[in-house]
């Protein structure tokens, strides 16, 4: 064998047995394989393909599969096979041609000698599988899709896997001991909090349905939880036993509407999960039954008692408080609902991504973090998974916005630069989009949303006839016209995305305009907030229910958080244009120029 080949074998006992004599690489070589029929696929890796096929034939959950495709390559070792297996599972899942039958028993995103060379080879393997009709989309389409980026089969780096193992250890210990406290998984932008949360939900449901260690394909520490004992503990938590089981009630709470819709589609495609598991805090508060486990994404975005987007939600907030706690205390928050309505809660948070005054108060978030640390229920994430420039870039952005002295870090191949011409930045974003896809313009809420289709005067008015919202140097744009999954919408390149359509998402390139809501005070030598140029009504709204009036300094913290989030969306690069001339000159010291 000088090149890889894909051997196809009918997935029945007789056809497999025929290949045993004479012995060959199918019985003694590291391989990756896919078992499929017209609708389902299962991916694995092994050192003895024929023996593993016979073992799979005994599994009633795989007996309906009809074809085994075995990848043979003389250069492959077990590390390469393990890596390719993980990628194939993610690619099959994101492509959507097949239902993926694999359990989420742990895939490590590990380095090994020659990995870059092997991963180029893997792309050739993908092309061959696609030529055989096993993939519908191109690899670029797959890897830019929400199903790939939010996949429950995503390979994990070491600290993500460590966090999941620590959460599982703590959860099972707490179930056995009968105690419980909220767990916190904390991390800066790009550390993969959402992926960890999705992976946890999938893993818990897979463990619940497991029949023992044989269900686990991987040699991962996570696979240990598929052994006898752990599934029984989850059945015990659910209040059932082997004779009268009740499904484990697991919910994934997502405060942001756009991201919630995307994750709902991901859950609907995933065996063992469903869109109904993706919840708002109001869904949790109104539930007649408690949840066994609630995982809360962006938990800092849960609301305190404040004016809600509609009168009906204000009424629901009060009603839920009264139902759960007998009275509508203004001190109650949606976090109280989460804790009251679940036996165990796992909170994914980053206090510096809070972007509105109605979010959980900083002192509440601080108490939660402090309690979690004191009870050893706090699990940090550190590895930067989104921005190719690494964690130094995220800290650098936050330091710049906070006015702390900082030097531009070595960003390697990451494209980062300041534009003096908005048209040039837009052209650069369009060029990157043609090459890589998912390159978008974004800005803070520094312009009124005149084109908002919810306005009565615009009801039924086509998009092309709605007014423009943003004008810079004579060039005009509208705000994001799609409230859900805007980054993949047809008009996205012609519009600007806001924090409410981008928080939690990845872009390949972000072109960020720092609008006139921030300016540089040359006398004080600091970046300040200009309320007159900020149009997020909920972003400046006082809280009369709790007697809170927000000063400009209070709002400035949220606005700077907004820009910190937007400036950390780009995987490959971030371009910056600044409206305020003095601020542009101030940032020129630390952001390299781009033509």
From TrEMBL:
Domain of life where this protein originates: Bacteria
A Pfam family recorded for this sequence: SLFN-g3_helicase
Domain GIY-YIG: 28-100
Transmembrane regions listed in the UniProt entry: none
Protein name (Swiss-Prot/TrEMBL): DUF2075 domain-containing protein
């Amino acid at each position: 064998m000088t090149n890889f080949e894909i051997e196809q074998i009918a997935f029945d006992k007789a056809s497999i047995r025929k290949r045993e004599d004479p012995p060959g690489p199918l019985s003694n070589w590291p391989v990756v394989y896919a078992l499929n029929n017209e609708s389902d696929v299962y991916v694995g890796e092994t050192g003895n393909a024929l023996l593993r096929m016979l073992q799979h034939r005994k599994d009633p959950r795989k007996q309906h599969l009809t074809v085994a495709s075995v990848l043979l390559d003389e250069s492959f070792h077990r590390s390469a096979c393990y890596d390719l297996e993980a990628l194939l599972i993610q690619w099959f899942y994101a492509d959507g041609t097949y239902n993926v039958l694999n359990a989420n028993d742990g895939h490590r995103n590990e380095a090994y000698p020659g990995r870059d060379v092997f991963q180029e080879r893997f792309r050739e393997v993908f092309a061959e599988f696609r030529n055989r009709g096993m993939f519908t989309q191109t690899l670029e389409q797959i890897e830019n899709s929400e199903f790939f980026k939010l996949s429950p089969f995503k390979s994990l780096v070491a600290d993500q896997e460590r966090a999941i193992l620590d959460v599982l250890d703590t959860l099972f210990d707490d179930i056995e001991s009968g105690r419980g406290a909220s767990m916190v998984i904390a991390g800066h932008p790009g550390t993969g909090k959402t992926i960890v949360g999705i992976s946890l939900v999938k893993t818990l449901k897979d463990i619940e349905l497991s029949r023992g260690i044989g269900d686990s394909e991987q040699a991962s520490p996570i696979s240990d939880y598929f052994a006898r004992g752990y599934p029984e503990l989850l059945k015990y938590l659910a209040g059932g036993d082997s004779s009268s089981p009740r499904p484990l009630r697991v919910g994934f709470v997502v405060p942001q509407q756009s991201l919630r819709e995307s994750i709902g589609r991901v859950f609907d495609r995933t065996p063992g999960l469903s869109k109904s598991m993706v919840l708002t805090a109001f869904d949790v508060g109104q539930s007649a039954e408690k949840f066994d486990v609630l995982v809360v994404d962006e938990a800092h975005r849960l609301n305190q008692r404040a004016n809600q987007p509609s009168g009906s939600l204000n009424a629901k907030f009060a009603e839920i408080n009264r139902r759960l706690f007998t009275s509508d205390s203004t001190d109650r928050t949606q976090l109280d609902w989460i804790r009251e309505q679940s036996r165990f809660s796992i909170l994914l948070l980053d206090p510096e991504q809070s972007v509105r005054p109605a979010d959980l108060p900083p002192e509440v978030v601080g108490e939660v973090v402090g309690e979690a640390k004191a009870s050893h229920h706090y699990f940090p994430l550190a590895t930067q998974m989104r921005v190719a420039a690494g964690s130094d870039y995220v800290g650098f952005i936050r330091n710049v916005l906070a006015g702390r002295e900082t030097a531009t870090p070595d960003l390697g191949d990451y494209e980062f630069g300041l534009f003096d011409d908005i048209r040039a930045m837009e052209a650069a974003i369009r060029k990157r989009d043609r090459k890589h896809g998912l390159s978008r313009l974004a800005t803070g809420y520094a312009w009124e949303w005149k084109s908002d289709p919810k306005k009565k005067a615009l009801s039924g008015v086509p998009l092309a006839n709605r007014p423009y919202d943003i004008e810079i140097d004579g060039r005009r744009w509208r705000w994001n016209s799609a409230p859900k999954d805007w980054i993949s919408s047809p008009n996205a390149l012609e519009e600007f995305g806001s924090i409410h359509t981008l928080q939690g998402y990845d872009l390949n390139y972000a072109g960020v305009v720092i609008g006139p809501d921030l300016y540089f005070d040359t006398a004080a030598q600091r970046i300040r907030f200009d309320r007159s140029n900020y149009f997020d009504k909920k972003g400046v709204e006082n809280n009369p229910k709790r007697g809170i009036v927000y000063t400009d300094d209070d709002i400035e913290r949220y606005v700077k958080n907004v820009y910190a989030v937007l400036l950390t969306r780009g995987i490959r690069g971030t371009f910056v244009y600044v409206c305020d001339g003095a601020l542009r000159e101030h940032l020129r010291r630390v952001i390299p120029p781009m033509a």
